[in-house]
Amino acid sequence: MQKVISTEKIPIKLWLDEPEAGALKQAYNLANLPFAFSHICLMPDTHEGYGMPIGGVMATDNVIVPNAVGVDIGCGMCAVRTNIKADSLERKQITQIMSGIRELVPLGFDHHKERQEESLMPQDYNIDNLVIVKRQYLAALKQLGTLGGGNHFIELQRSDEGDLWLMVHSGSRNFGLQVAEYYNKKAKKLNEIYYSEVNPKADLAFLPFETDEAHLYYQEMRYCTEFALANRKLMMERIQDVVSSVLKNACFEPIINIAHNYAAWETHYDKKVIVHRKGATSAKLGETGIIPGSQGTKSYIVEGLGNPESFMSCSHGAGRKMSRTAAIRNLNLEEEKGKLDKLGILHSIRGKSDLEEASSAYKDITQVMEFQKDLVKILVELSPLAVIKG
Question: Is residue 157 domain-resident?
Fold first, then answer.
């Protein structure tokens, strides 16, 4: 922990030097919520979001806040170690693998033409009780196993021990967005009816667990989180199929998975609370996690240290230092392409719009990791060989 701000109703604990003004203003709003518990946490990748900073962690007393989870509910990472030595790969083989992945995994707004197997969807839910899940279910069957856009990616990576790793970053596709928007509107209406003291301009409308709406949102949010995992698992299976078709002796270790953008009942400081992690991941003692860098920079497999000060959480990545619009406006296309070319990384930066996800738009991942040495320890360091962006 780097700094504590004690001017608000509850403290704000920061694992970074200087958060941007917009993110700090949002943290002040969080710290003055009547139901916020103990303190607010800002992870080292913190930047301004909608309502709550991305990289923020907040515990609440019997209340859930849709905008403190975000719109890509359950977005997260998965990674798999292979038995292949990265240095044994020829450039041609890497190209074949990436081409094969593009054939099997739809990117951006694309989805499958056919519905995927229903058995892959989350089980043990009565979807007739879930308004948005029921409405979006058939469409989601075509989105299962698709990457999406924005900062989502598929990478081939080389570990510091020389092994080939596979990594996927993706979320709950349209499910999460629809659930977030629907229940945020519900929360706003309820807060108006009951004259909530929370400033509506803060975009932090909430649902008390005394209401049916809170329980319904919690169930739909959980479904989205499980769907996001199913989505990543299906993509990873198909990526492995491609790798096996090119590298005949390939074997794969069990998948590592970690989610961000969710809320969960947990016990902290001897009290059962709802922990909201928006652009932050769980880092319980001994828990294996994944912290990716930006395009062309290192990623890390980590082990949680269970630090109670962060509600046992850590950053979910490097974090933006530049908005998407600013990145397109200010970054040089040829310079960003040159950085990746110089490192020998196969990439897909082609035009100005691709600068949204250029590495220069993100914070220095090595500094981010330095800031959270009391939250996680690094197990494996990964360097990119090739990347597919959504």
Answer: yes
Backbone φ and ψ for 214, nearest 5 degrees, come out as: -65, -45
Closest among 168, 126, 175 to 147, alpha carbons compared: 168
Q: Are 52 and 36 in contact (CB under 8 A)?
A: no
Domain membership flag for residue 326: no
Residue 124 is encoded by which pair of tokens?
Answer: 């043990």
Active-site residue, from 47, 152, 316, 347: 316
Q: Which helix (H) or strand (E) is 241 found in, with range?
A: helix 212-246
Asked whether the beta carbons of 27 and 57 are under 8 A apart, the reply is no
Three-state DSSP class for residue 11:
coil
Is the pTM above the cut of 0.85? Answer: yes
Q: Which of 326, 291, 165 is nearest to 236 (CA)?
A: 165
Contact 327, 356 (CB under 8 A): yes
- Give CA–CA dist 331/336, Å, rounded: 8
Q: Which of 329, 344, 332, 326 is nearest to 387 (CA)?
A: 344
Q: Which domain holds residue 169?
A: 3-321+362-384
335: in domain: no
Active site residue 215: no
State how many domains the chain has: 1
Q: What is the pLDDT along the chain (390 residues), one digit of tens a residue?
A: 779 999 999 999 999 998 899 999 999 999 999 999 999 999 999 999 999 999 999 999 999 999 999 999 999 999 999 999 999 999 999 999 999 999 999 999 899 999 999 999 999 999 999 999 999 999 999 999 999 998 899 999 999 999 999 999 999 999 999 999 999 999 999 999 887 888 888 899 999 999 999 999 999 999 999 999 999 999 999 999 999 999 999 999 999 999 999 999 999 999 999 999 999 999 999 999 999 998 889 999 999 999 999 999 999 999 887 777 887 888 777 777 777 777 777 776 667 777 777 777 788 999 999 999 999 999 999 999 999 987
CATH number at residue 368: 3.90.1860.10
Q: What tokens appear for 327 in the block?
A: 């990145």
Q: Is 47 domain-assigned?
A: yes
Lookup: tokens for 233: 């698992």
